[in-house]
Structures are given as C-alpha cells and as structure tokens.
Specification:
With 98 residues, the chain is α+β, with helices and mostly antiparallel strands. The chain has a single domain (2-96), classed as Roll (Ubiquitin-like (UB roll)). The protein is built from 2 helices and 7 strands.
Length: 98
C-alpha cells in the first residue's frame, strides 16, 4: 500500500487503493497544501515529488502546460489537485513549492 508523506507538516497517511492527493488534502487538513481552482488553472497547489515519482500517474497536458510552460518547473513538480498515486507498495514524499 502506498504511503503519502507531506514533508513540511510531517503528516503521513496510507492509501490502500492509491488515489488522488486532492482527496487526502480535503480529508486531512494536516497535509497543509493550499488549493484554489482544483482544475490545473492556478498552480497554487504545486508540490515537488521528492521520492516516489514512479508511484505516481503521469501528468496530463493541462498540468504540464502550467507546471512547465508557465512556471518553468521540471517534471518533479506536480499539481496536487491533479496528482494521483498508484496502488501498490512504496512511499510518495511531497514538498510544497512556494
């Protein structure tokens, strides 16, 4: 089962089926990720995947257009509102990008 770790708050949660980071943040305020649009339009929820990128679903074109095209980040920076964690063992460690 994947374990999701938020570095800045030290909050950790297991995701038995994998799933959306957005849902975890909605259910657990201790995740500490700010959201606004929730549709890959604003970039407020940018996080860096510092561990476990292989446990994440790939970014779609809308997410890449914002993270790479507008903010000029590399592939490690994702939008928490779009990020999905795959089921299976492993750790996904996130750091909020300010």
């Amino acid at each position: 089962m994947p374990r999701l770790v938020f570095e800045h708050t030290r909050f950790e949660v297991d995701l038995p089926e994998g799933g959306r980071v957005l849902d975890v943040c909605d259910e657990h305020f201790m995740a500490g990720v700010a959201f606004a649009c929730r549709h890959a339009n604003c970039g407020i929820c940018r996080v860096e995947v510092v561990e476990g990128a292989d446990r994440c679903e790939p970014a779609d074109d809308d997410e890449l257009q914002l993270t790479e095209g507008v903010f000029h980040h590399g592939p490690a920076v994702r939008l928490a509102c779009q990020l999905r964690v795959r089921a299976g063992d492993g750790v996904v460690r996130l750091r909020v990008v300010r």
